[in-house]
């Protein structure tokens, strides 16, 4: 292979005919000297133009080695930017060249896809004859291009030279290739990252997408179907397995019990209120409630007087089978003005079970005893420890002033006795309904954390539970006794009230009403209002752990 830059390869330097010469200064000074002419000054060395490089490439294509010889690739044109070309024009020219190369590759790829193959004539066709080109400025005066060399214009040599060289190489190597080698091999294009594969790979990609889409749709439809079945099954009506005892216990019936009980209470008030002066009016009022065959006087003989104060349903509702689900025996407790408490059973019929309309007393009433009462068990107070010193301090210094302000709902005065976080009940009061309080009794229960100290020492912030009995004066001038559970807190300034609640349990238990020979309680006896009032005066007192007398059992 000949070195292009060696002296042997220079044009006119003894190299074989048809070989391109080297780029450089002209060799004519020696010839002028031999002819007797004066030697001229050497011209400055010029860079090879695009036309000269195209001629060199064409010469190499013309002398392409045959089969079995190594093909010499054409020299790429040396990029020279004209003096007047800007950078923007250069970028546009390079972009146009890249676009042309892309279009050529695209056309070749489409031709391979169609399965077409260039005919042997196309491979064997010689390159078109090159037109003579004007003399390049870089060539010496009188130098001509070799015969048969391709000559291109300077404007198109940059892109046409490589294409012409490649076409010539392909045409020269075409006849020497075997039939199997002439067939184009199946291209294997590697897609760019994020791009799509071409050819059969693209069809596979589309099929994969379709498969994934169909699978997703089927899965979504199946999930919707399963969810629909679950929701539909869960929203369906379901009936709990309850027996008749549960139905009676929780009153799970279609009968409007509350409406029927209210109707029976109104009828019981009219029935237990009677006097000779209001007999006709009472009879007319009772007739609006009862059916035709019911006693018009509701059991009154026409003599004596009575006035019912209150009537309340006792919670009983017995079903009578004559009317099926439309009737109940309703129990009503009636209290008269003399303090007597009576229980009446009123049969009530309801026509419309859904709306509760069509109420009617369907029979005569019956008087029944009060429900049986149980004996209250005695409280176990053996573990209780009381502080009498603290109880006296509270009874004398704290509670009298607090109850005076609490009974009158004096917020300003209550702030002197309550903590900042006191409960609402401890800071609201009775609004003057009770007045003139007298603290009758105070019991202070020692917390377990302080029971081991002697005397009892309460740290700051320690809470103590107390039971307080207070005698009040009502607006009528009478005295009433009320019991309270209170919580007091020890602070650096003394004891303050944090909470107050009503009601105190009876530690004695049992029952306070009298008994007959059979041991049954009297049905007409009213409930006891004070356990201390029913305790026998002769009962011996039992000492507690703190020395406080404990009421004895009867």
Structure characterization notes:
Strands 1, 2, 3, 4 and 5 form a five-stranded antiparallel β-sheet that branches. With 554 residues, the chain is of the alpha+beta class. A hairpin with a 5-residue loop joins β10 and β11 (549-550). α2 (50-62) packs parallel to α5 (157-173). It is 31% helix and 16% strand. Among the domains are: 1-21 and 48-64 and 123-135 and 143-178, no CATH class; 249-368, Nuclear Transport Factor 2, Chain: A, CATH 3.10.450; 388-504, Nuclear Transport Factor 2, Chain: A (Roll). The chain is built from 14 helices and eleven strands. The N and C termini lie far apart (141 Å). The protein is elongated.
Short summary of the structure?
This protein is α+β, with helices and mostly antiparallel strands and about 550 residues long. It is about 30% helix and about 15% strand.
Layout of helices and strands:
Elements: H1 28-34, H2 50-62, H3 87-113, H4 120-124, H5 157-173, H6 179-182, H7 200-234, H8 244-250, H9 257-271, H10 279-287, E1 308-319, E2 327-336, E3 341-350, E4 359-361, E5 366-368, H11 388-408, H12 411-414, H13 424-428, E6 435-445, E7 463-473, E8 479-491, E9 494-502, H14 531-534, E10 542-543, E11 549-550
Antiparallel strand pairs: 1-2, 2-3, 3-4, 3-5, 6-7, 7-8, 8-9, 10-11
């Amino acid at each position: 292979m000949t070195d292009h830059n060696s002296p042997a390869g220079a044009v006119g330097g003894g190299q074989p005919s048809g070989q391109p010469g080297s780029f450089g200064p002209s060799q004519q000074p020696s010839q002028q000297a031999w002819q007797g002419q004066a030697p001229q000054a050497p011209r400055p060395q010029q860079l090879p133009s695009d036309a000269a490089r195209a001629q060199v490439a064409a010469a190499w294509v013309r002398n392409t080695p045959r089969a079995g010889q190594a093909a010499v690739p054409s020299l790429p044109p040396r990029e020279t930017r004209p003096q007047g070309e800007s950078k923007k024009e250069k970028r546009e020219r390079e972009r146009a060249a890249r676009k042309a190369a892309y279009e050529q590759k695209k056309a070749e790829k489409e031709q391979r896809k169609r399965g077409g193959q260039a005919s042997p004539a196309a491979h064997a066709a010689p390159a078109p004859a090159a037109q003579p080109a004007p003399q390049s400025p870089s060539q010496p005066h009188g130098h001509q291009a070799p015969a048969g060399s391709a000559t291109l214009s300077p404007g198109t040599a940059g892109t046409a030279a490589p294409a012409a060289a490649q076409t010539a190489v392909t045409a020269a190597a075409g006849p020497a290739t075997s039939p199997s080698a002439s067939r184009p091999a199946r291209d294997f294009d590697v897609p760019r990252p994020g791009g799509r594969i071409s050819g059969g790979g693209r069809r596979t990609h589309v099929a994969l997408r379709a498969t994934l889409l169909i699978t997703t749709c089927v899965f979504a439809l199946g999930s919707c179907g399963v969810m629909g079945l679950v929701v539909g099954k869960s929203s369906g009506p379901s009936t709990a397995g309850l027996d008749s005892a549960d139905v009676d216990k929780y009153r799970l019936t279609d009968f409007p019990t509350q409406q029927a009980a209210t109707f029976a209470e109104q009828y019981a008030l009219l029935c237990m209120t009677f006097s000779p002066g209001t007999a006709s009016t009472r009879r007319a009022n009772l007739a609006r409630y009862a059916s035709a065959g019911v006693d018009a006087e509701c059991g009154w003989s026409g003599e004596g007087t009575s006035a019912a104060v209150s009537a309340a349903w006792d919670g009983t509702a017995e079903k009578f089978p004559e009317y099926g689900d439309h009737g109940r025996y309703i129990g009503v407790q009636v209290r008269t003005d003399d303090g007597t408490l009576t229980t009446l059973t009123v049969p009530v019929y309801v026509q419309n079970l859904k709306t509760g309309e069509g109420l009617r007393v369907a029979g005569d009433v019956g008087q029944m005893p009060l429900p049986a009462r149980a004996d209250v068990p005695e409280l176990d107070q053996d573990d209780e420890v009381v502080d009498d010193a603290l109880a006296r301090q509270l009874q004398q210094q704290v509670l009298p002033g607090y109850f005076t302000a609490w009974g009158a709902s004096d917020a300003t005065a209550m702030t002197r006795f309550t903590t900042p976080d006191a409960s609402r009940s401890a800071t609201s009061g009775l609004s003057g309904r009770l007045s003139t309080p007298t603290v009758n009794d105070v019991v202070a229960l020692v917390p377990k954390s302080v029971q081991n100290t002697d005397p009892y020492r309460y740290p700051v912030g320690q809470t103590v539970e107390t039971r307080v009995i207070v005698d009040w004066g009502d607006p009528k001038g009478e005295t009433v006794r009320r019991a309270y559970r209170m919580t007091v807190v020890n602070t650096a300034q003394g004891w303050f009230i944090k909470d107050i609640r009503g009601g105190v349990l009876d530690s004695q238990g049992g029952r306070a009403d009298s008994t007959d020979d059979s041991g049954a309680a009297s049905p007409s006896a009213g409930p006891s209002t004070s356990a201390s009032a029913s305790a026998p005066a002769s009962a011996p007192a039992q000492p507690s752990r703190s020395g406080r007398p404990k009421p004895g059992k009867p």
